Amino acid sequence: MSKFSEVLTPDNAVLAMIDHQTGLLVSCADEHPLVVKNNIQGLCNMAKTLGLPSVVTASLADGPNGPIMPEITKILGDRVINREGEINAWHSSAFKSAIEATGRKKIIMAGIVTDVCLMFPALSAVEEGYDVYAVIDASATWNKTVQQASIHRLTQAGVKVTTWASVLAEIMSDWRSDKGMELGQVLADHTTSYNYVMNSYFARS
Description:
This protein has helices at residues 22-25, 33-50, 70-76, 93-101, 114-127, 144-156, 164-172, 180-190, 192-204; strands spanning 13-18, 54-58, 81-82, 106-111, 131-135, 160-162. By secondary structure, it is an alpha/beta fold.
């Protein structure tokens, strides 16, 4: 089976959150910061709901990039791999070892900024045989032009560019699954339109 037709499951994926730092986020303008924050929280809550292993890393957290967004550590926990200076997180032995320790080959990956913190490790991981899902709407960068250029390069390399809600639906697979209603609530909590869908459903129940 082609890796492009293989699907995410709760047992084959790991979440990697790369450099979602307060100092970097304030400079991003390809999407409204509140929308990005909401998408990031949705992605993290999906992982928490499913019990997916997660790896969070930061670069120059004591410097201009700032600390990891508190919304992330509140959901996924306080363990953050603070890199020693590597721009490409994949070049950090601590980060790469944490991914390898999960034994999973599918990486759900998001990062700020998209064209560096997400793109570089995504390209490196694909080169080593990993199947990377780049969650573009839980990432952010300087402007739409930079975002589009990043998407082109990622897809050229075989990275699967996707969105957080699409990842959630793919990994849930079936509303009748054990986590179906909980994941539906995550969608409702972090997407205005689906919140109305869930409200209508529960109103009829």
